Structure formats: C-alpha cells, structure tokens
Amino acid sequence: MLLALTRPVSPTIVDCQLTHLARQPIDFLRAAAEHAEYERQLAGLGASVRRLPAAPALPDAVFVEDTAVVVDDLAVVTRPGAESRRPETATVAAQLAEHRRVVSIEPPGTLDGGDVLVVEREVYVGRSTRTNDSGIEQLRRALEPHGFRITTIPVTRCLHLKSAVTRVAERTLLLSPDWIAPDAFPGYSQLTVDPAEPAAANALAIGGSILHSSQHGRTRARLEAAGLSVIPVPMTELTKAEAGMTCCSIIFEVS
Fold first, then answer.
1. Could you report the per-residue pLDDT of 40-58, keeping only the tens digit for each?
2. Number of separate domains in the chain
3. Backbone angles phi, psi at 28, to 5 degrees
4. 128: CB partners within 8 A, 6+ apart
5. Which residue range is the domain that position 60 belongs to?
6. Phi/psi of residue 187, each to 5°?
7. Is the CB of residue 218 less than 8 Å from the CB of residue 199?
8. What is the three-class DSSP state of 42?
9. Is this structure's pTM higher than 0.90?
10. Which of 4, 57, 123, 188 is the most exposed place for a label (fewest CB within 10 A)?
11. Would you state the pLDDT for residue 56?
C-alpha cells in the first residue's frame, strides 16, 4: 500500500518562513481548498492519505516533506533549518515509527526534506540555507549502509534542491537550468522547464501520472509533449509560501 502523510494548512500560514520570495497576503480558505484538492488527487492515484494532527500554531506545518526522508526500511527525521519549524517533527516521527526504524538528525546538523532527491539508489542532497554540512554527513551515515550513494549539490538560487529538480519518470528529471546546473545529474534524461516558469520544476510523480502546479501551463505542455500524463493542481496560495508539489506529503510504501 502507498501511504501519503499530510497535515492540514495552518490558519497562521501567512506567517510562514520565506527566503527567496517577498511576503504576500495568503488566503487561508483558498489555501485549504487547494490542499484538499491535492489530497483528493493523491487518493485518486492510489495513495492512502493519512492526515497528521493539525498544528495551528506552526505556520509551515503543512509542508511535511521537510520533516523526514523515508527509504525502504528506514526513516530519517530531519532537523529543519528554520528553528521555528523544529516542533513539527515529533508527530511525524511518531507516525513513521509505526512503519520504519527511525533515526534523527542531531545538532548542529540541519536538514530539510525538500533538499533530498532520491532516485533509485542515488540520493542528491542540496547544500542550502536550510541544510548544512553536518546534516548531510549524518544523512550519509544513515543511508550509505542501506546501499544509497549520496551526492551533495550547492543550492543558492532557490529554497530547496527540489525547487529546482524532481523525478518525473524512470531515469528522467524535470529541471530548472536557471536554478541548478544540468550537468550535476549525469546519466539521466532531462526535461527543462519553460524559461518563463523557473519555479515549475517541482513535480510529483505518483501512480503513473505527474501532479504539477496548474499555473505552470507552458511547462505542463512540455511534459505532455514528452508523453507524460500530467494532472494540474491549483497551488496559487501555497506557492506564496514557497511551496511546491512535493512539499505537502511524505509518500512511501507500507505492508
């Protein structure tokens, strides 16, 4: 069974952490509706959606991806780079402990799950404002014994590595060349976003389809031209909080 952990949008989301975007008003009700549609699409593509407890006092709590990295038989609970986000991890760890052995990133390490791209046994980790060298080294020590190879990639022009690159099909990546160097991923087929949509590289491949932000129609056309099935999902409000399509869930297989 494919399990998707999510968490409701906090009514305080307007106070979210921001790094590369100017703060704008966020319509909470519209953001909640967008998130509900996202969950509906996950369920329609075969995932069992399980909502974590609401965290109304934690503005960024909806972005559960940043709190953990889950592989075959291990879950690494992160230590988010933004201090205000660290209380998000306890409930995630408790849920993951039902399905995986859990280890945690310890101080002084910081690691955001949005900086971790797993493609088969390759793990690309963004060295960003949210993820530091200690966090990367701790992730390496946790994953390498399980057969994963870790590669560090500098991230300076966007929030997370997966803001700039995601997997959209087997051995195929969707990439924003304005934000990340294409030659950092040798051996993979690459599709690039439309130049007018640098933020369009974050896509979620699930159930034979790709969930992709509906406001990035030009890049969606490129994906469809490559023969991929794309489902547009509204993200206008969540995008103001530097969200992407992968941010709002932790998806993994359970028996």
1. 999 999 999 999 999 999 9
2. 1
3. -60, -45
4. 81, 112, 115, 155, 156, 159, 160, 161
5. 2-253
6. 90, 0
7. no
8. helix
9. yes
10. 57
11. 98
